[in-house]
């Protein structure tokens, strides 16, 4: 049972009810505890049509319910990314400095990429 997050924070923004996998919520909850400040989920699960609407790639892990875009309250993207990597060696971490968020997914490739 997640301590910090509730499922509703991860539901598809179009209101369709498409939701993330519990493993993602539980993983991010542990990361949130270590971070010590709030994380806003700006995009969690996406149904295929909403993924298209926001310009997501067709095979996005958001569609599988295994990805979330995270904004740390303290704005420190590097620290958040480091904690994500520490707790989840196989996660994919994409850092978007100009937009101020970190994409986190359980895709398994263990990549950290600076996107912009
Ligand atoms: Zn949807
Ligand atoms: Zn994302």
Can you characterise this structure?
This protein has 116 residues and is an alpha+beta fold. The protein has one domain (7-114): Muramoyl-pentapeptide Carboxypeptidase, domain 2. 27% of the residues lie in helices and 21% in strands. The chain is built from three helices and five strands. The chain has helices at 22-35, 48-53, 77-87; strands at residues 39-43, 67-72, 92-96, 101-105, 112-114. Strands 1-2-4-3-5 form a five-stranded mixed sheet, covered by helices on one side. Strand 3 and strand 4 (101-105) form a beta hairpin. The protein is globular. The mean pLDDT is 97. One zinc ion (ZN) is lined by residues 43, 62, 67, 69, 103.
Keywords:
116 residues; alpha+beta; Muramoyl-pentapeptide Carboxypeptidase, domain 2; 5-stranded mixed beta sheet; 27% helix; 21% strand; globular; binds zinc ion
Task: Tell me the β content.
Answer: 15-25%
| Total number of domains | 1
Order of helices and strands: HEHEHEEE
Largest sheet: 5 strands, mixed
* CATH topology value: Muramoyl-pentapeptide Carboxypeptidase, domain 2
Low-confidence stretches: none
What portion of residues is helical? 25-40%
CATH architecture: 2-Layer Sandwich
Instruction: Supply the CATH class.
Output: Alpha Beta
Strand order of the largest sheet: 1-2-4-3-5
Q: What topology emerges from the helices and strands here?
A:
Elements: H1 22-35, E1 39-43, H2 48-53, E2 67-72, H3 77-87, E3 92-96, E4 101-105, E5 112-114
Parallel strand pairs: 3-5
Antiparallel strand pairs: 1-2, 2-4, 3-4
Helix pairs in contact: 1-3
The protein binds zinc ion (ZN) (2 copies).
The site of one zinc ion has 6 residues, from loops.
């Amino acid at each position: 049972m997640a301590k910090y997050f509730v499922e509703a924070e991860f539901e598809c923004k179009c209101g369709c009810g498409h939701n993330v996998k519990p493993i993602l919520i539980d993983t991010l909850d542990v990361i949130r505890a270590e971070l010590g400040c709030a994380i806003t989920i700006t995009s969690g699960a996406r149904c295929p049509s909403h993924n298209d609407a926001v310009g997501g790639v067709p095979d996005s892990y958001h569609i599988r319910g295994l990805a979330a875009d995270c904004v740390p309250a303290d704005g420190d993207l590097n620290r958040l990314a480091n904690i994500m990597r520490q707790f989840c060696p196989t996660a994919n971490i994409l850092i978007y400095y100009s937009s101020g968020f970190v994409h986190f997914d359980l895709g398994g490739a263990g990549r950290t990429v600076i996107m912009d």
